[in-house]
Structures are given as structure tokens and as C-alpha cells.
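Final paragraph of the annual report: two paired records, presented back to back.
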Amino acid sequence: MQHFQFAHAIVVAMGNNCPTAEWRSWKGVLEIAKKAVMDELLYTFDDDTNEQLTKLIDDALEGGYNRWRYEV
């Protein structure tokens, strides 16, 4: 999986599940919204589904949420 594909999938999943006006950081995002984002990403990359991918997704979302929020 290329970095661009992964980053694009995160932007799409965030846009589908997390309206930016509601939260200032990934820590503030409701668990149900986090699960929806994670489920969408895991579905997108179902051939790579494992604990390492889940951790990578969670870390990427936590680290990049504010950047994504301001780019949208």
C-alpha cells in the first residue's frame, strides 16, 4: 500500500464520519465516530487487516487529525 493511497483513504473516511466543526482533536472524537472511521479504513484495506494496520491507522489519525481538519 502506498502512502498516498493510505492518506487519501484517511481523508475520505474522516470526511464521511467526522464533521470537522465538532472536534478539535482526535482525542475528542466520539468512540462511535472513531470506530466508523477505523471500520471504513479496515474495509478499504481488508487484504492487510491485522493489529499492526489498526495501530498504524490509529496513530495516523491521532497525529494528523488537526492537519486534516484545517486542510478541509
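The closing record of the year follows.
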Amino acid sequence: MTPSLVVTPVTRTVAGDNGTTTFTIQTIASWTAVSDQAWALLDTTSGKGDQELTVIYTANSGEERNATITITGQGTSPPWTAAMVIQQADLMPCCCVPGTQRHVMPTLRHLLGDGLLLGLAFAGLWAGSFPERTRFRP
């Protein structure tokens, strides 16, 4: 009987800062793993049997990016499978508006359109309304 090769989940979406995420490899066979991106490093590149595969990713200072992790099994069906790490774009740094106590994020305005108020900080408190999926850090 041909051993199976399953990787779960198929996709992981991670934040723009550095960190780790894991995938579960399920098989009784030997396997190898490779990442197609230098920013997504693997904690191991080979193994045998069921195992957690950890992807260590660096901070993203640009646009959203993807890394494909290809796992190839020895004599498995399917012979290989892939998982994807989607790393979100990192947040732009805030800048101070001279003469005020407000901090705004005007560098994001071009992403969402002119005239949108993206965020205000008053004495360290954030206020404003934001589109769904907008993230920011104090």
C-alpha cells in the first residue's frame, strides 16, 4: 500500500512582524521540505513520519508576500504537496503633525484613497474608524 502525504493547514496567514508558524505533516514515509523564499526559513528540511514543521519568518517592511513550502514524500501519494505562508504588509510608522499633539498615519492614505482619516493618537489613546482588516499597533 502506498503511504499518503498530508499537510495541514494548507495556508497560514501571519502578521507583518517576525515570528513563527507551524504546519503538520502526516505520513509514515520519509519526506523533505523546502521554502521558495529566503524570508521563510524552515526549522528542519527532512524527517520521517508525522511531524510539526515550523516556519520562521522575518519582518515584512513592504507589501503582502507569499512563500510556498513544498513537502516531497518518498514513495507517497501524492508524491508532493504544498503549503503557503501569506505574510501581511507591515504597518507604516506614525509621524507627528507639527504644532499639535496628534499623530496621524498619512503614509497609509495612498492605500485607501484621499480624504480618509486613518487614525489619531491623543495622549497615547487611539481613536477613529477604520476599514475592515485595518491593523495597527500602539
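Residues 100-128 have pLDDT under 50 and may be disordered. This concludes the annual technical report; the extension proposal builds directly on these records.
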